[in-house]
Amino acid sequence: MTEHTSNAAHDVITPAEFKEQLAKEGLTLKVWAIERGYDPEYCSRVLTGMVKGTRGKGHEIAKAMRIK
To answer: How far apart are CA 12 and CA 1, in angstroms?
Structure first.
């Protein structure tokens, strides 16, 4: 029996870590979102948890942020 390990679980970060990462890169959430073709307001909702990011565009954004 082979063991299946995924690096994906290690790549997940918290929303606070995502914000820190943006700050280190000198980016705002708005710039990050626009560069990727996302609506900045919707990205903010995903980041704050107002949008759960379980399906659709919210999930896509959460994965791009690495918070899912």
So the answer is: 27
